[in-house]
Design a protein that fits this description.
By secondary structure, the chain is mostly helical. The protein has helices at about 10-15, 15-40, 45-50, 55-60, 70-85, 100-130, 135-160, 175-200, 205-215, 230-235, 240-270, 280-315, 320-335, 345-370.
Length: about 375
């Protein structure tokens, strides 16, 4: 049995939930450190709050329900992430029980884990449902939707303040109204988009997947148990292509998380001239809103560049496409330090956006044809 080719609309609906996931993820990336600083986190300790999806992928490989193989994880992740989005900026409501910083950090961990629960099976779903020759298109469509959702999420606090007059100032230790509203809107969009994907997407049944595996020559796994030890076994049996990509991924995400975690305090200090300890002035909130604009820029560039990725990859190959894109992104990231004012930072984000588009699509396109279909989720 062969996988049938999907229309563009079907591929779009297949990944539409990613729009909401990435809108929420963008709100988290642009504003979580800012919110934690408002609640009293030391800038030098911010990275610890971000520590928290191989487990999700591992179990989604073995999950078969009436909703399918991957969709249950979308729903659970979306529900938990939505709760986190609503509660994190409102952590000061729980100060009678524990410090707002602790609650905020807890909500961040819940959100981060939940976004991974919702996000990672989307990658595997594309490989599950699409034939090999449509996977680059499938991952590129995901990147486009990621860009759209992330632009909306990143820009929303700035837009609410500068277009609709919503206040971006608050008392010391309180989150401004524009952030509170942004997170509520993000939670609503996340749930709606996930529901659309769940309702409109059909996954192959276990019996159909067996026939597809036989047709594609994918031998049955020796052990189909759900033991966590299988993850370590899978790690040892990691395909050569994945091992080659591992270091590339490590350094790519190292740079990205450095940007996500420290952009607000860095730009507030380096560009706006504020003290690191200043987390309540209008200047700090303006810096945080501008970080959202910058993150929206790189996501917008990513969405546009994603349209060209299939053609570029077809012409020069997936590996070279990814390599050149990462080099451009690295130059953009380094240039942040040398930019004289906030507007010049937009130029830096163009380079970052090119790398981001490739990071979200090319590694998965490179790997999808070289790893066993039964292990798509965990890998």
């Amino acid at each position: 049995m062969q996988k049938r080719k999907l229309s563009f609309l079907e591929i779009w609906n297949l990944s539409f939930g990613f729009l909401g996931v990435q809108m929420g993820f963008a709100l988290q990336n642009a504003n979580a450190s800012r919110i934690l600083q408002i609640f009293g986190a030391d800038v030098h300790e911010l990275s610890w709050f971000w520590i928290v999806a191989p487990l999700t992928g591992h179990y989604s490989d073995r999950t078969w329900t009436k909703l399918g193989r991957r969709r249950p994880y979308f729903l659970v992740g979306a529900i938990l992430a939505s709760l986190g989005l609503i509660l994190m900026p409102n952590s000061d409501m729980f100060t009678a029980f524990m410090p707002a910083l602790w609650v905020g950090a807890g909500m961040l961990m819940i959100m981060d884990a939940s976004f991974n629960i919702a996000m990672e099976p989307f990658r595997a779903l594309v490989a599950d449902v699409l034939p090999s020759d449509q996977r680059t298109l499938g991952f590129s469509v995901q990147t486009i939707l990621i860009g759209i959702g992330a632009v909306i999420g990143s820009w929303l606090p700035y837009v609410l303040t500068n277009w609709f007059g919503v206040m971006n100032e608050a008392k010391v230790g309180e989150v401004p109204l524009n952030l509170l509203l942004s997170f509520v809107v993000g939670a609503a969009v996340l749930m709606i988009s996930i529901i659309i994907t769940v309702v409109t997407t059909k996954e192959y049944s276990p019996e159909e997947m067996e026939l597809i595996h036989e047709f594609e020559g994918d031998a049955a796994a020796e052990d189909e148990s759900s033991s966590l030890m299988n993850i370590f076994s899978d790690f040892r049996k990691m395909p050569k292509t994945m091992k080659q990509l591992a270091w590339v991924q490590f350094f790519s995400w190292f740079g990205l998380f450095g940007m996500w975690v420290f952009s607000t305090p860095a730009i507030a200090s380096h560009i706006y001239g504020l003290e690191i300890s200043d987390t309540s002035s209008k200047g700090f909130q303006d810096a945080g809103d501008w970080v959202g604009i910058l993150f929206g820029v790189y996501n917008a560039v990513s969405a546009v560049y994603a349209f060209f990725l299939p053609a570029i990859a077809k012409k020069i190959g997936r590996k070279k496409t990814h390599a050149y894109s990462l080099i451009i992104g690295g130059i953009g990231l380094i240039s942040i330090f040398f930019m004289p004012d906030k507007n010049w930072l937009i130029v830096s984000m163009v380079g970052v956006g090119i790398a981001w588009a490739s990071i979200l699509a090319m590694p998965y396109a490179i790997l999808a044809g070289s790893i066993p279909a039964r292990k798509m989720g965990v890998y």
